[in-house]
Write a structure and sequence with these properties.
By secondary structure, the chain is an alpha/beta fold. It has two domains: 75 residues, Metallocarboxypeptidase-like (Alpha-Beta Plaits, 2-Layer Sandwich); 190 residues, Rossmann fold (3-Layer(aba) Sandwich). Helix content is 30%, strand content 32%. The chain contains nine helices and 14 strands. Strand 2 and strand 3 form a beta hairpin. The mean pLDDT is 89.
Length: 276
Amino acid sequence: MNDTVQISIAVTDEQTRQQLIAQLSINDFDAFEENDENLIGFINSENFDEPLLQSILARYNLSYTRTTIKEQNWNALWESNFQPVVVDDFCAIRADFHEPFLDKKHEIIITPKMSFGTGHHATTYMMISEMSKIDFKNKRVADFGTGTGVLAILAEKLGGQSVWAIDIDDWSIENATENIVKNGCTKVVIEKADSFDCEQSFDVVLANINRNVIQSNADFIVTSVGAGGKVLLSGLLKEDENEIVTAFEEKGFEHISTVERNNWICLLLQFEAKSK
């Protein structure tokens, strides 16, 4: 694992922050933190493209500061800033150094490393909240872009028969594997893959990535879902809704619902066509 580059951008406007997070996520930034004054992004030094970052920020007339975090210091930094996430009375996400949440239906323990999906970001929060409305019992589940593995873990806790969790990033694969063991999961299979191209069939597909990846893998997702199967998508901005919904409706899906949080959305679609 290489060093981590931390970028701090002085920006207070919420809409601009969300647009930046969307653009930086597409360009290999792995995690983000926000405070009243700054948006802070983290990226593996090997993937950091400074001219590209400058080009993106120039559109908003924004500046940044750069800090390099040595590999061995990353966990200490992340742990010092990691706070538990609570999604209503449904689910709590915490590190093993936090006190247990005994009043929640489900509790997930993760090691807070540099993988996307701790529950703090609006997209992960919405995915978890919407999963509470889906029947996972004895269902075959796919988690595309698993990150920390938190959605895959929750899918098993909700009764999933099997969970196929994939990610393109080695660090995410390592972190998700560790978290799956930590939560006593036995039905989650982790695999490194750069697309959703597979011959498996699923009852529920979870994909919290970004618009470009969802669009480029839409056909793979569609062919893996049977009649009545559900697809839950996030990593999308409000302005992406019509384009994504239309693309799936043209392939035989019904748009069930959209929820929004901080200009991010989460879409639930269901396949109803008798044949593809």
